[in-house]
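Intended use. Records like the one below are meant for learning the mapping from a protein sequence to its folded structure. Do not use them to infer anything beyond what is encoded.
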Amino acid sequence: MIETMTALAAPRPALATSAIRHDWTVAEIQAIHDLPLLDLVYRAAEVHRAHNDPADIQRAALLSIKTGGCPEDCAYCPQSAHHKEAGVPRERLMPVDAVLKEAAAAKASGAHRFCMGAAWRQPKDGPEFDAVLAMVRGVRNLGMEACVTLGMLNPSQATRLAEAGLTSYNHNLDTGPDFYGDIISTRTYADRLNTLQNVRDAGIGLCCGGIVGMGEAVTDRAAMLQVLANHAPHPESVPINALVAVAGTPLEERPPVDPLDLVRMCATARIVMPRARVRLSAGRKDLTREAQILCFLAGANSIFYGERLLTTANNETDADAELLRDIGITVPGLTLAAAE
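Structure written out for the chain above:
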C-alpha cells in the first residue's frame, strides 16, 4: 500500500490545457504516454474539452478507388505487389460516376468526410489523375469534406488537388524514424516528409498518423508523435491505427494490439496536438464498445464509418450509430477540421 501511494504521489509531467506547442521532445512525449492510465485519460480529457466540443465526433467514409498492385513493400499492407500471398487482386481505377455514387450513399448514411485511397507509389499526370480531380470536385459538390491518399505528390500535383477543392491529404508516417526502415524499404522517411511539405505548401489540410502493433517500441510511438507535434501548424487530422495482421503479409504473425495501447496513443496525441482530429482508425473493429468509449474520453473525435476500409473489415454502420446514440453523441453537420 505504501509503495502504491508513493507511486500515485510521484511528480507528473506538467501539462497546460491551453498551450499549443511545436517544440516537444521524445522524452517528454513518452513521459506523458507512460503516465498511470487513469491519470493520462483524465489529463487528455481536460485538454480535449479545452480545445474541442466533446460531442463532435466526425464520421468519415473510406473507399479504395484503385486497389492492389502497389510497388511499395510496406510490411503491413496486403495491397503491396511484393505480398502476393495476401491475395488482393489488382484492380483499375474506379469510374468517377461509381465513386460519386458511393460518396452520395455515404453522405446519406451520415458521413461528413469521404476519403479515397489509390494504391500508387505516386500518381502519374494524365487521365487517371484528372479523374481523381473530378472525384474530388464531385465529393465537394455533395457538401462533404474530401480526402485522398495517392502516395507521394510533387508540388504541381498538390496544387492541382488544392484547386479542385481537396480538404485533406492522407499520408501517414506509419511509425517513428528509427523503426521505419524495418517496415518499408522502397520509400524513405524523408520522402514522406517531403510530400507532407508539398501538401502544406499547397494549402491542403494534413491527415497524418501511424500504426501501433508492428513490433515497434514505445519510444518509436513517441518519436512518431513528436515529428507530427513539431509541425507548425499541427496536422488537422491524426489517424491512430492498430495493425490489422493480414495473412500473406510479413506481419501476419503479429499479436493483436492491446486496446489500452490505443487508448494511450489517442490520449497522448490529444495532449500534444490539442486541436487535431484524432481519428480512431484501422483495428477499431476488434475493440469493445467500452474500449472505444474510453478512446473517445481520451480525446479521439473521429471514426471511419462504414463496413469496409481499404481492404479490411470495419464496424457495421448501424452498430456505430447505436454506439454514438447510446453515449449521447449527436454528430453535427459538416465540420471542416482546423488544427490551429
